[in-house]
Every structure is written in C-alpha cells, then in structure tokens.
Amino acid sequence: MKTNLPKTFLGHASGLGLAAATLVLAPPLSAQSARTQPAAVSTAPASTAPPASTAPASTAPASTAPANTAPASTAPPVNTAPSSEPAPAAEAPPPIVTPVAMDNQAPPPGGATSQAEWSATQAEPAHVASGSSTPDASASQFFIAGGWDMTQPTGSSAEFANVFGVQSASLQLRYQGQGRASFGGLIAWQSWSAKNDHTSTEGSVTIGGTQARGVYINPIYARAQFALFDIRAASSHKKPVPYAAMNFGGAHMVRRVDIGISSLTEDSWHWGFAPELGVEIPLSRLVAIAGVRFNYLVASGEGPEQLYFTFTLGVGAF
Questions:
Q1: Above 50 in pLDDT, residue 24?
Q2: Mean pLDDT across the stretch 116-125?
Q3: Mind listing the domains of the chain with CATH numbers?
Q4: Which single residue of 181, 198, 253, 280 has CA 20 to 30 Å from 209?
C-alpha cells in the first residue's frame, strides 16, 4: 500500500538523522580538552634528578575511552644521587679512670694502670709465701694453752723425794701482738711423791720406817717468750717454731711426810724463776707444744730451795 507522507514530516525525519550522525562522529569533549590543554607546571622544588624529556607530545588521535581522572601521586621523588656527607667517625673507647693516690699510699708505678691494680699487687695475703714473717691478720692476738706437766726433781729436791712425777698440769695465756715476742703469764700445779724406807732424825729423836713423802708446788709466773718465727705467719704454718722463754714470779710449796698414822707438814713461799726451751707446731689455729722448763725456787726462812725439771706436752689456740 502506498502511503503518502507529508513533506513536512520527511523534512523533520531527515533533520533528526543528520543530528544523530553528527553526535556519533564527533569526538568526546574530554578527549579534545586533554589534547588542547597544556601540561600543568609542578610547584614542587626542583629535584636533583635529570629534567624530564621535552619530546613533543604524540599526535596520535586520542582514544575514545574516557581519561583516567585519579589524582597524581604527591610522594616526592627518590634522590638516587650519592651523598656527599662524610661517614660518621668511629666512637672512641671510654677513658680509663685512675683513682687518685691517698696521702698514705704511694702512686702507682709506670707498669700499673690504676691505684687499685697496684694496691692488689702490694697487698699481702692472709698466708704469705714461705720465708716471710708477716703475721696472719685473721689470727687473734691472744694465745691460750694448756699442758700436761711431768716433773723430775734434782739436787736437794731429789734428796727429799727422788721420783718422776706425772700428775701435774699448767695453763698459760700470752699476748701475741708483738710478732715473734709474746708476753703473758703461767700458773701450774706440780707434785711428785714417793714411798720408801727412810730413817730421819729430828733433834734427839730418830724416826725410821716406811715413809710417804710428797712435794706440792703451785708456781705463779710472769712469762716473756721469743720465737724464731712469728707463730701466726705462713712461713711457720705446720712447721716447728723453736722458742725460748723466761718465767719469773713466786711459788707456794708444801712438803709432807707420812709415817704410819703421823704426818709432818712444811708450808712455805718462795721466789722463783724458770728458763724454758721448746717448740711450737702450728696446726691452723691450733698449736701443739713441747717444752722443758728448769724451775729454781730460792730458799726462804720457812723452807729449803727446790730444783726440778718440768716436761710439758700441750695444745693451744688463738
């Protein structure tokens, strides 16, 4: 069927078609703007990196895809040029602090790095090397000893009762702070007795028969002793230390004679002295003692003189 359209309608239709063709063929506005606008100038400070290339922009037709509108990164460019600053110097070691020498101390010698090191080399140990007489500082200055005494009378004492006695004891206390010399005191209880047949005359009376005779002496002496070494020194540690001593003082003596049921007693005081020789053997803080002492008691108005030896075995401690 043939349709007759008015010319006016045809004219409008051809106009719409031309407009649509124009929209399809025209490039997007954003692409044209990107091609015609100049590149933005960066306001950041100039970098030491080489300048960007000045080659002309490509004249290839822009893509019809929309441009990426994400903002450019604002991170500053990395400086890859080598640094001209010098490397930091190595840290110096800490200085050695040397203590100032005290008034009573000598300055450290050239080989010592500090006063403490020099003092350590000069300090004496508690037990010094053999041959030294430096006292052991850890030992006490006081010495006490007990001994078992054995007696042997001689001279006029042996005429009264000649027997070797074993029932005696002694005790001594000394101050050892003078090194090899020491001072103190000694007390003892010494006795000996014998039972024999005797005949004695007292005035006009003669007495004979079996008699028990005994002598009992209690000396109280001041004592001064001098040793070959200081007994507290390491040089004498577990080695014999010979000594010489002098004892001086007084003594109380009792002589007794028993005949049957009768007894005669003589009581007297005497001045006396007793030189002594012996040896002391240190055993750590204990000391073994062996000595011999000659006792002489001067005759008094109440009794005759007494002479006897004392042999001592004892042990002492600081």
A1: no
A2: 54
A3: 142-197+209-317 (2.40.160.20)
A4: 253
